[in-house]
Design goal:
One of its GO terms (biological process) is Mo-molybdopterin cofactor biosynthetic process. The active site is at 202 (cysteine persulfide intermediate). Its main location: cytoplasm. The chain is of the alpha/beta class and 359 residues long. The protein is flat. The chain is built from 12 helices and 13 strands. α12 links the parallel β11 and β12. It has helices spanning 3-28, 36-43, 108-119, 139-151, 155-169, 183-192, 210-213, 238-251, 253-258, 280-294, 309-317, 331-340, and strands at 51-61, 74-84, 87-93, 96-103, 128-136, 174-181, 196-200, 262-268, 271-277, 300-303, 322-325, 343-349, 352-357. It has a domain at 234-357: Cytidine Deaminase, domain 2 (3-Layer(aba) Sandwich), CATH 3.40.140.
């Protein structure tokens, strides 16, 4: 593996977190909302592009400009639209192509670690021995990934097949996350290996078998007990949750530009940590990966989405005491949360919140 790429990727993760922390501290000193230009500049401080622009046409009615016949006219504005980047992230574990996730291309180490933890392939951060992130940028860098399929072709068809594959892949942003896990984890991978082509943060894409999709999480049951202590976790108050949501709304840089990403956020030592992604499952995996890598405990996670069973399962595995959503939970999510001691709340909006379990 290339050391320079590892350093580059780790610096990328650290820099993103620094950007978020600095922004929150500055935002606490002023009540002004950030201008879009400032937000765009902040998003683009990442080493990888999170937003791209595309020329678009906005068609709309303007009630102030109706003609004398009261016939509404369609107005057209041509303007650049800010679009969230959605990249294919290939997860390679000990040389095994394990999964492909569609995700926002930042904080990829945390995404990979959180994803593997949610898959049950790792239990502790120290089981990850090394990691490397590579962005595929030209034809030469694509070739090793297509070589295996190309070898299956006859010599006459090999060149044509490879060229077609490369042309197809070049329509996408592609990142390779190579992970080296210890031998015990490698045995788990061999027992559970699957080829998964996930849609955007699809928590159960590619899973076969009900037992794998709906696992027994009894070993993770919390009885609503906080990580690292024997004290019952405190129900987060409405005031604390509203303050947290206010910070999340102000700090979601990519979402402010695009309206196309979710976020998972938590408070740690009175500081907001936020992880954005085009997929809500990916956002939570990034937070869990950060939690494992930094060896910190969290009391509450706020999701900007609805609360599905997949998010509840990930939170239970991560021993997160409280999961709060801006939208509603599903009935299955509530039942599973109650069974395993996860506090669950939803509809955090308009000066209110609804508690479903853990109270």
């Amino acid at each position: 593996m290339q050391a320079s790429l590892s350093q580059y990727s780790k610096w990328e993760v650290d820099r993103k977190m620094i950007t978020i922390e600095t922004y929150v501290k500055e935002n606490e000193r002023t009540s002004e909302q950030p201008h879009e230009s400032n937000v765009f500049e902040s998003v683009n401080t990442s080493m990888t592009p999170l937003v791209r622009t595309h020329l678009s046409e906005k068609h709309y009615y303007s009630s102030a400009n109706n003609n004398d016949d009261n016939i509404a006219q369609v107005h057209i504005d041509r303007q650049p639209a800010s679009l969230a980047v959605e990249a294919a992230v290939a997860i390679i574990i000990n040389g095994i192509h394990y999964a492909v996730l569609m995700a926002s291309p930042h904080q990829l180490e945390y995404l990979a670690v959180g994803f593997l933890f949610s898959e049950g392939l790792i239990q502790h951060s120290h089981e990850l021995l090394d990691w490397d992130v590579t962005q595929l940028t030209d034809t030469a860098s694509y070739q090793p990934l297509t070589q295996e399929s190309a070898d299956l072709e006859s010599e006459d068809a090999e060149a044509e097949s490879l060229e077609q594959t490369l042309q197809q892949l070049q329509d996408y942003d592609i990142y390779i996350v190579e992970l080296v896990l210890n031998q015990r984890c490698h045995q788990r991978i061999q027992a559970q290996k699957r080829q998964l082509a996930g849609r955007t943060g699809c928590g159960m894409c590619g899973i076969t078998g009900l037992a794998q999709a709906l696992p027994d999480l009894s070993s993770y049951a919390q009885d609503n007990v906080s990580n690292g202590s024997n004290k019952k976790s405190t129900t987060p108050s409405l005031d604390d949750l509203l303050k947290m949501r206010q910070q999340v709304d102000a700090t979601q840089h990519t979402h402010q530009l695009t309206g196309a990403v979710h976020a998972a956020a938590t408070m740690h030592q009175q500081q907001l940590y936020l992880f954005e992604d085009v997929g809500r499952h990916n956002a939570l995996d990034k937070l869990i990966g950060w939690q494992l890598r930094q060896k910190v405990d969290v009391d509450c996670v706020l999701m900007t989405s609805r609360l599905s069973i997949e998010l509840v399962q990930k939170s239970i595995r991560g021993r997160i005491p409280w999961l709060v959503g801006m939208s509603a939970p599903t009935s299955t999510a509530v039942r599973v949360a109650e069974r395993y001691g996860l506090g669950l709340a939803g509809f955090l909006r308009n000066d209110r919140v609804t508690y479903y379990s853990g109270i």
